[in-house]
UniProtKB/TrEMBL annotation:
Stretches that traverse the bilayer: 46-64
Record key words, sorted: Membrane, Transmembrane, Transmembrane helix
Every RNase H type-1 domain range: 231-377
SUPFAM superfamilies: Ribonuclease H-like (SSF53098)
GO terms of molecular function: nucleic acid binding; RNA-DNA hybrid ribonuclease activity
InterPro entries (alphabetical): RNaseH-like_sf (IPR012337), RNaseH_domain (IPR002156), RNaseH_sf (IPR036397)
This protein's name: RNase H type-1 domain-containing protein
Amino acid sequence: MKNVRKNFCTHFLAQLITPCGSRLLSWKDLRFLKRVSNKGSVPAWFNYLFNLIVILNSLSFFILQQFRIPSSHTVASISFIDISRNYWFNPQWAISFNRNTNSFLVGRVITTYPAPRNEALISHWIASSVDDLLSEFTACQGCASAIPRSSTSKTLIKRCPSEGCFSYVLLLSLIRYPTKPRTYIHADTRSVSLSASLGYAKSLLLFHLFAPVRLPPTNELVLRISDIQLPSSVFTLYIDGSFLSPPSRPASSMAYAWTAIDSDGFILESHYNIISSIFPSALRSEVFALLHGLDSLPRNSKITVATDCAQLLSLWSLYVDAPFIFRMLKEFNHLLWSSIRTIMLQKNLDVTLIKVPAHADDPLNNHVDALAKAAHTDSHLSSCPPSELMAPCILQFNSLPVDMNIRKFIRDIFDAKSLLTLAVLPRFNSYSSISDIDWACTKFCLNNNKQFASHRNGRSEFCGFRIKLLLDMLPTLTTLQRQKPHLYNPSWLCPQCNSFPETLDHLWTCPYILPEFSPLQTFKTLLLALQTTYLDHFLSASSLMPLPDSFAAEFMALNCWDCDPPSISCLRLTRGLIPISLTEFLGVYFSSPTIWSILDTPLHDFHFDLYVQIWLCRSIFFHHWELAQGITKKMKSSALGPSSILRPSSNIPLDSSTPSLATASLDSWVSWVSSTIIRGGSWISHLDFWHRLTVQPLLKTSFW
């Protein structure tokens, strides 16, 4: 799953179809256009898309009517014929369309002629197959459209020994055939394979010749963000944004303000308002102030915008005062920047941004700053709807605009759904509610690839041990009795102590025959070492507030350190599930990143010590015990034997606890991701669905 997310790519359907909007591009064409990876075979998602939208048995990949896209919304990369070397030999592969015969002509441009002729001499090549998805061509040796060889330059003809059919074509009806820059031909008239299919080249030419001109929208249809129309005498615009985050307010709040100044320094108009809570941040309030101010200007304005935000100036020079770059779409607030670019183009604005000192002696900047702060407390204001943006394309999630890197956003959706699926597994709520687990911290420790997936000392089995420990899937005797009751008698107890069933929790509490060598004593020693390591790290870490003298005593008194007998929190910590009681106590004094980073590495080392000092020793003992019982490796790998009929799984002794199935709404992850958009931060910080979980008792069955 990690590799899938790493290579995850998002496409619009318009990127995968021909410019005319009626046919799906072949995988070969998509590779040539660099819209997909150039490695590997055709992926499953493309085959699924093909079966979904392409007309059945269509050899040319024509798509169903409901999936066709207007040509005004498709992607067309057209290259024109190079006319910089008129009269000279300048070979270029091209395609043209004859309006009189309604036929296409593919060939190689030999040379071009300037006005008044505006023609190109082209050699005619014929497709080797009627299939438009292919790109094999052979030189035509003569047809009705050919001109006599004697009417052309002998010098040019000598450069084309394998071509025998030439014609003159108007430059207006020619475009370059999409292929690699250097496609050589052979003197023995062998066929030539061009990069793109003939079908794509035809679609590109038809789009160039017949697609309607994309006119800019009229003034009546232009979407406005601001309902204010400033006079043409505006000379300077002061802008500012304000952002208040918890705990200063119950929820994040953004506001903006601007003041229009004329050339004499008089205030023409001031405006302030609050902003819809979408990806709240201080920078977003500054960008929106700029957007609203520019939309209030008249057409053809030349204005200076003053701001005290240095980051705004930096992003302006990168995303507005420069040609468009795709990097902008990976940034937060790219919808706002796209709207600013649209306004600049529609209104033909000439804007210069300048930096003014923040909180200095500039009265106008102080004035607009006070207006932005006052907007938070004005109950008569109403925010602008988040949908009223002027970006060319606005993606929405749960009716909220996605103003961030779309690939990262989709990855967050998959992560949220995966965590929900994991958290509601019955194995995590055998003893108490899963709300007792800090899933945000647990996920951080699981996703720390450097620690979690490392093969320490060359032992690749340790990674598997941690995963099985977390999921309660270690092959203990109780688990084997459920899986292979014909080999492991359900009445057998722990081979080491012969007193209790060998469950996962019993691994750490087994008294053993010799108490001084018991796993329980080893577990106590390792847990005490983990507690001491954590305490030393937190005492030396930078805290949000001074630590009280009682911090160490309160930390050591947490129930996650109770190991004789082990508490539920202690057993969950042993599995790698961070108790919420631990992080809530530490959260009073430390930030979440500090807590998570400190808890991660010692927990990894604690698990490694459990693996070496308890699990490996137990596994060696268990192997010899199996041999003593006559259980061989061949028997364990075989299918169920006839004895399983005499020993039904219902005779397996039950654990003392009855697991429960925690159920949550299947769309709980939607509220997490929506909270990310509205309240900001990572979705992992909005796991409030635990309070809405219901627990249903289940019959005692095997969940593996």
